[in-house]
From TrEMBL, chain A:
<protein>
    <recommendedName>
        <fullName>Zn-ribbon domain-containing OB-fold protein</fullName>
    </recommendedName>
</protein>
<dbReference type="Pfam" id="PF01796">
    <property type="entry name" value="OB_ChsH2_C"/>
</dbReference>
<dbReference type="Pfam" id="PF12172">
    <property type="entry name" value="zf-ChsH2"/>
</dbReference>
<dbReference type="InterPro" id="IPR052513">
    <property type="entry name" value="Thioester_dehydratase-like"/>
</dbReference>
<dbReference type="InterPro" id="IPR022002">
    <property type="entry name" value="ChsH2_Znr"/>
</dbReference>
<dbReference type="InterPro" id="IPR002878">
    <property type="entry name" value="ChsH2_C"/>
</dbReference>
<feature type="domain" description="ChsH2 rubredoxin-like zinc ribbon">
    <location>
        <begin position="5"/>
        <end position="40"/>
    </location>
</feature>
<feature type="domain" description="ChsH2 C-terminal OB-fold">
    <location>
        <begin position="42"/>
        <end position="103"/>
    </location>
</feature>
<dbReference type="InterPro" id="IPR012340">
    <property type="entry name" value="NA-bd_OB-fold"/>
</dbReference>
UniProtKB/TrEMBL annotation, chain B:
<feature type="domain" description="Thiolase C-terminal">
    <location>
        <begin position="235"/>
        <end position="371"/>
    </location>
</feature>
<dbReference type="Pfam" id="PF22691">
    <property type="entry name" value="Thiolase_C_1"/>
</dbReference>
<dbReference type="GO" id="GO:0016747">
    <property type="term" value="F:acyltransferase activity, transferring groups other than amino-acyl groups"/>
</dbReference>
<protein>
    <submittedName>
        <fullName>Acetyl-CoA acetyltransferase</fullName>
    </submittedName>
</protein>
<dbReference type="InterPro" id="IPR016039">
    <property type="entry name" value="Thiolase-like"/>
</dbReference>
<keyword id="KW-0808">Transferase</keyword>
<dbReference type="InterPro" id="IPR055140">
    <property type="entry name" value="Thiolase_C_2"/>
</dbReference>
<dbReference type="InterPro" id="IPR002155">
    <property type="entry name" value="Thiolase"/>
</dbReference>
Amino acid sequence: MTPWWEATREGRLLLQRCEGCGHLQHYPRALCTGCGGTDLGWQESAGRGAVDSFTVVHRSPSPEHAPPYVVARVRLDEGPILLTNLVGDADWHCDQRVRLAWRTLDDGRRLPVFEQE
Amino acid sequence: MSVAVVGAAESELGVTGKTIMELQTQAITGALADAGLSLADVDGLATAGVSRFSATQVADYLGIRPAWTDSTFAGGSAFEMYVARAAQAIEAGQCTTVLISYGSNQRSARSRSLAGVLEPHTPETEFESPYGPLYPISYYAMAAQRYLHAHGAKREDLAEVAVAAREWALLNPRAYRYEAGPLTVDDVLASPMVSSPLTVADCCLVTDGGGAIILTSLERARDLRRPPVVVLGYGEATTNTGMASAGDLLEPGSIMSGRRAYAMAGLGPQDVDVAQLYDSFTITVLLTLEGLGFCGPGEAGDFVRRRALPYNTNGGGLSYCHPGMYGLLLLVEAVRQLRGECGPRQVDGAQVALAHGTGGILSTHATVLLGVDR
Ligand SMILES: [Zn+2]
């Protein structure tokens, strides 16, 4: 279990931060894509951002996903982009402001999703 | 550049009931016959999508022991990359005659999945698949949504790409939609939504199919039975596997792969007479037309509506054939256009053709410029 997933149990969305150059990234890696450094730590995201783009999925790729649902790229205010779901009723559009919400998985981990701000 | 394409062929297309190897064999024997060469002449082989050892597998099946192979896996762009690698291998003297082949029975075998292929150890499986994106369409759908938003474009601009593809398919008896009749913008808009804003009609076909081309030195090509089609230049760009990795969905790798190919050939988009652009989805064409410099950002919808450039003259992946990876069939049509073999869909006097392969989720891009022998 990585620290990233462990933190989701407490409702904290972590971003990986390079101790060498300050670059923030998601998904977590063994090196910094900004400078190649390997001294990496964590920073908690404030959970605010904007919809870079989204798509309403009308066909299910697997039984655990019941369409329609919204898949989106959310650009966090800290910089990194996450693939995520948008939840709640909204007339979604690009650049819309969103905030962090959580969906609990069967094993107690939680999945960061976003709702209209 | 001193390498030329000397043979090209398709396999059976559509719903064939054939195996991958049978389709490969049809394409390979067709391309060899077209070139007036035999298997004994082939000392280089590039292919993908057969097995883990794709080139080795096909070499075994054909009973040849090539001096050079390539099975670089880069989705639909791999075959344009093979042209580059083959040209380099021939120029370096590693081999003399390269066969590039492909075959897929995905339609007959029902082997296509909406979720794509999930490999448990990849970051995408860990951090992206829990959200249920369809692969690859949801990524292209997000690119399309961003495109509509950024440029004030409309779904009609996407739909027009499918309409244009159908017009060409109606001129090509080999096209899956040859007898389907014309498509209208309203048909596309009314088609079932898959991953908004893309409908079924914004998506490429799911068919069987295959193809093969043969390359050798230009010097030798001039003694063979077909007019040589010269490799003028090539360029590549590899960008992302993740759906969240690209900073800007509207700046795909085609921008750089195109620039690199044009620079090598000493040509620009204004020199291209006919283009074969990977049309996995309608949005792919709009982004690729802009990426390759045929028009400016946000102008591709109007560019397509004006039919400003003959492209995807066989009907494309949208209306002709899309066998999982379509990249090789882009090259087959480019070659035929430059040889003037295309009958009712022939672009008169075509001297320079461009083939652009796109793999994955705008992940890999490869541009090849081909020309008639001057
Ligand atoms: Zn760094």
